[in-house]
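User: Structure please.
Assistant: Input sequence and predicted structure:
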Amino acid sequence: MREITPCRPSWKGTMTARERFNNQMRYKPVDRCFNMEFGYWEENFTKWPLFYENGIKNNEEADIFFNFDRIENVSGNIWMSPCFEQKVVEVKGDKKIMINGDGLLAEVPADGHDTIPHYIKASVETPDDWLKCKKERFRRDDPARLVNTDTLKLAYPKSREFPVGVSCGSMIGKIRDMLTFEGLAYATYDYPEMVEDMVETCCLLAEDFLDQALPVVDFDFASGWEDICFKNGPIVSVNFFRDVVMPRYKRIKKKLMDFGIDIWYTDCDGDVRPILPYLLEGGINCLFPFEVNGCAHPAELLSRHGKELRIMGGFDKLKMIEGKESIKGYMQSLAPMVERGGFIPFCDHRCPPDVTPENYLYYLDLKETMFGQVR
């Protein structure tokens, strides 16, 4: 990566980023709050003068530009291998029809701006479709799934000063990507055995990766991605999640605990409350990036579940859009949770271009004033 000059000094501290993260996530004393953000929409890099005038083109560069605390995550080849070839099938005015990497026929904006695609058809709809796809793209013995453990060990020595997580993949969220939202909802009723076999396959591939990675790196946390909730709750039934998905989490939890990893977050937007008891029972004890408007204020869940739960994120992006008074009021509402521990505040998903750079910089300054001072 090219050299990037930060636009602001890093927050002062007396601990390493790794010490700070581990203590904060475990309700132990810290010098000050861990400083991080989840990132930005692609449009921000072309619409915010703060970015394009300084040549900042992606989230990785933005993290360095804003001098956030360093945090990294290691993932493996635990999904389709190979993916479907992405190609444009047809262009219709300001829309184009394409096949994406998960094999979905999708309609997207021709100009490429960020939006949720309109999915037209999935490549996997029946058990026969799945068996063919599984044979071609989900082989556990695929050489591309082997981890270069020597490289991994050199990149993340025990003596490092920043936290590193290990990805546990997705037990059901990526299946949603392959089947579509409606496709998954129907399939759990029409073909429950097929969906369970998909979940089992995802779990096996994650376990295969963990068996390679866990012995060579001293990881600080685990991560996952389960984007299966919307504003009215989960796509699948709570019973399906409890009986099919949660047992796979428990298998992964055992592997993590064998290597001393007791913090595991998952990225699941929307209202997670109906399935949260089973996330916790399965071993996932942190929510990320916790979208407020699709669920609730972080205080509601943290007060209900106590120190069993952690949250990373949870700053309402709509307050950033509204302006400084709203930003300050919401930031103040988070102060008791930051003080309590087990909570790292940042924008509750990628920051949208509707937030002005002025408001965003005010938000960063206020966060430092309130939570970034050395104790």
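The mean pLDDT is 96.
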